[in-house]
Amino acid sequence: MDTFMVRLPRWPVVLRLAGRDPLVRTTDRIEALVLVLAVVVSLLALPITAAVGTAVYDSSRHLYAEQAHTRHTVTATVTDVPASQQILRTGTTTVAARWTTGDAEHTGTVEAQSTTQTGDSIEIWVDNTGAQVPAPLPTTRAAVEAAMGALVIWISVAAIAATLFTVTRAVCDRIRFAGWQHDLDNLVDNSGGHHPGRTSER
């Protein structure tokens, strides 16, 4: 009974690194090695960026949860509307207002609709001290920020690895082209020499 062995196909890059093919030059092995390193670095960056994303998520979620706990709305009374209003793109303007938190009265400028008149009531966000603050951000935003941050970090690492491989490949190609040109020049020089035994025709 005849026996035979089935060889599984191997990755061409591995062949270039570990093979003994005499046609494979040093530049080919260097290029293949850099490619493998670029892939390995990109893969190793995945768990690192995931850990960074998790840390960002925990921190942002805690911050937004604290904002939701310490901020609340109060009713402010518009005390003055400037004669020449600067209306923003959102259709709002800045007016003077007064509001009360606990036993303390506060005054300041707030953002209101451009149609607001003196004496109108508007809702504003304040903290525990009564100072005006922006509205708290939803905790769901923490997940988006974490995912975007992790993605940006991984893309940056992969881009650096890809750039390194591209530069290495360009340098190796230049070296290979120079070597091929040198071999072609030698071939042309040798083929153009005098051949013994050939006589000139008259």
Strand content: 15-25%
Instruction: Please estimate the helix content.
Output: 40-55%
Radius of gyration, in Å, reads: 36 Å
What is the subunit arrangement here?
single chain
The rough form would be described as elongated
Number of E-state strands: 4
What is the structural class? alpha+beta
Description:
InterPro entries: MT1774/Rv1733c-like. This is Membrane protein. The protein is an alpha+beta fold and 202 residues long. It has 3 helices and 4 strands, in the order H-H-E-E-E-E-H. The chain has a 4-stranded antiparallel sheet with strand order 3-2-1-4. Strand 2 and strand 3 form a beta hairpin. Helix 1 packs across helix 2. The radius of gyration is 36 Å and the shape is elongated. The C terminus is likely disordered.
Features:
202 residues, alpha+beta, 4-stranded antiparallel β-sheet, 3 helices, 51% helix, disordered C terminus, membrane, MT1774/Rv1733c-like, transmembrane helix, Membrane protein, transmembrane
What topology does this entry show?
Blueprint: H1 12-18, H2 26-70, E1 72-80, E2 92-101, E3 104-113, E4 121-126, H3 140-191
Antiparallel strand pairs: 1-2, 1-4, 2-3
Helix pairs in contact: 1-2, 2-3
Condensed summary:
The chain has 202 residues and is an alpha+beta fold. 51% of the residues lie in helices and 17% in strands.
